């Protein structure tokens, strides 16, 4: 079984651990550098990216995590986890200290992008690479991906008009909003598949990424 850690400083840790176990992984919480060193993949859960940045510093995990990601550790971030994996964050940032993203994904994300009036919503999304129909997506004060680099694949978009106040970002209200991306072994969703009981397809997809990585490492 691939050993997959869930960064357990804050946020939706238990749900990810459970979904990973159901997807065939040996899932473990990660709070210390020694625990990080033992994993073959890592999940960054939802929560608050400002708080997560601060706690990564407090637990002296920021640099070790950034280094492992730079060395190709497979990673999956949901919501705040997506923000942490990005290379640049835009949007209101009145809280201090600011988010310091880890730069594992060549994307620019906008925090709390879907607007203030609509804090959360749910919808069904086509997800490239995931079979058997749309994925139910729960968005909670979610980011979206505003720019992607050349090596980034877009896996899912919320089509059409944003639920709320698209003018705030100056973007075409009719344009799709990118909410799932992959770059090599790094996956991110703006939504929370771990909150949808009984459907582990996104987690299985990530476990497959980790397995593929381990397979190619064994052959090398
Ligand atoms: N709004 C949060 C942030 O900016 C993310 C919310 C979530 O993870 N559900 O970090």
From TrEMBL:
<dbReference type="InterPro" id="IPR002161">
    <property type="entry name" value="PdxT/SNO"/>
</dbReference>
<keyword id="KW-0378">Hydrolase</keyword>
<feature type="binding site">
    <location>
        <position position="111"/>
    </location>
    <ligand>
        <name>L-glutamine</name>
    </ligand>
</feature>
<keyword id="KW-0663">Pyridoxal phosphate</keyword>
<dbReference type="InterPro" id="IPR029062">
    <property type="entry name" value="Class_I_gatase-like"/>
</dbReference>
<feature type="active site" description="Nucleophile">
    <location>
        <position position="79"/>
    </location>
</feature>
<protein>
    <recommendedName>
        <fullName>Pyridoxal 5'-phosphate synthase subunit PdxT</fullName>
        <ecNumber>4.3.3.6</ecNumber>
        <ecNumber>3.5.1.2</ecNumber>
    </recommendedName>
</protein>
<feature type="binding site">
    <location>
        <begin position="47"/>
        <end position="49"/>
    </location>
    <ligand>
        <name>L-glutamine</name>
    </ligand>
</feature>
<dbReference type="GO" id="GO:1903600">
    <property type="term" value="C:glutaminase complex"/>
</dbReference>
<comment type="pathway">
    <text>Cofactor biosynthesis; pyridoxal 5'-phosphate biosynthesis.</text>
</comment>
<dbReference type="GO" id="GO:0006543">
    <property type="term" value="P:L-glutamine catabolic process"/>
</dbReference>
<feature type="binding site">
    <location>
        <begin position="140"/>
        <end position="141"/>
    </location>
    <ligand>
        <name>L-glutamine</name>
    </ligand>
</feature>
<keyword id="KW-0315">Glutamine amidotransferase</keyword>
<comment type="function">
    <text>Catalyzes the hydrolysis of glutamine to glutamate and ammonia as part of the biosynthesis of pyridoxal 5'-phosphate. The resulting ammonia molecule is channeled to the active site of PdxS.</text>
</comment>
<dbReference type="GO" id="GO:0036381">
    <property type="term" value="F:pyridoxal 5'-phosphate synthase (glutamine hydrolysing) activity"/>
</dbReference>
<dbReference type="GO" id="GO:0042823">
    <property type="term" value="P:pyridoxal phosphate biosynthetic process"/>
</dbReference>
<dbReference type="GO" id="GO:0005829">
    <property type="term" value="C:cytosol"/>
</dbReference>
<dbReference type="InterPro" id="IPR021196">
    <property type="entry name" value="PdxT/SNO_CS"/>
</dbReference>
<dbReference type="GO" id="GO:0008614">
    <property type="term" value="P:pyridoxine metabolic process"/>
</dbReference>
<comment type="subunit">
    <text>In the presence of PdxS, forms a dodecamer of heterodimers. Only shows activity in the heterodimer.</text>
</comment>
<keyword id="KW-0456">Lyase</keyword>
<dbReference type="Pfam" id="PF01174">
    <property type="entry name" value="SNO"/>
</dbReference>
<dbReference type="GO" id="GO:0004359">
    <property type="term" value="F:glutaminase activity"/>
</dbReference>
<feature type="active site" description="Charge relay system">
    <location>
        <position position="194"/>
    </location>
</feature>
<comment type="similarity">
    <text>Belongs to the glutaminase PdxT/SNO family.</text>
</comment>
<feature type="active site" description="Charge relay system">
    <location>
        <position position="192"/>
    </location>
</feature>
